[in-house]
Amino acid sequence: MVPFGKRREQRGRAGVTRQGNFAGKNEKEQERRDADRRMNALLELFDIVDVTDRVVGRKPRSWVHRYGLRHRAVHTLVFNARGELFLQKRSLTKDLNPGLWDSSCSGHVLAGETYDQAAWRELGEELGITDPIPLRPVCKLAAKQETGNEFIWVYQAQSDGPFCLHPGEISEGRFLEIRDLDQELLVGPARFSPVFVHLWSRLRHQFLPRGMR
């Protein structure tokens, strides 16, 4: 196992997971587009929901986070054929949990969007997955402090990669065996997003190989 503190290339069946050049051909163009992306993110509209996850209104992202309003999100856990889980390290430019390890793919559900639509959109935006892959809903987590006041549908997908990581969203990514992930969480939980720590503690048993159950 390579510690999270040491960077390595993660090879999938078809090649190396890499960052994509989503933002342009030069560094200044990249910076400008990243700034535009952050501004657009603040203006995104989210559905506000009640305790039963019924939509009761819409507010901009910045407003939702500022006042801790109840809203929706998706997390997708991508496993390869060997049962290893792909983890992403959030970009340092992210407004929430920058630089922390997180689910393979995650994001907010936009106003008027379904959970399924959000899950597919985030797979395309963050990992560059546009072709159909096996994707199934696993569990819905209730909105509370541990989830950032988000109702979260968790999905499971299968892909060996390679992935094209969005540089404005993800700084790096890797596949990790579950036993190694458990060890990393034991010795350094602060390196992971709080929502992922909560999610994995709740759902870990569902993804264990039979010999580890």
From TrEMBL:
Record GO terms (molecular function): hydrolase activity
Keyword annotations from UniProtKB, A to Z: Hydrolase
E.C. number(s) listed in UniProt: 3.6.1.-
UniProt entry tagged with the keyword Hydrolase: yes
Entry-linked InterPro entries: NUDIX_hydrolase-like_dom_sf (IPR015797), NUDIX_hydrolase_CS (IPR020084), NUDIX_hydrolase_dom (IPR000086)
Location of the Nudix hydrolase domain: 69-198
Domain of life: Bacteria
SUPFAM superfamilies linked: Nudix
Positions of the UniProt region annotated as Disordered: 1-34
Bias (Basic and acidic residues) ranges: 25-34
Keyword Amino-acid biosynthesis: no
Name by which UniProt lists this protein: Nudix hydrolase
Source organism of this protein record: Methylacidimicrobium cyclopophantes
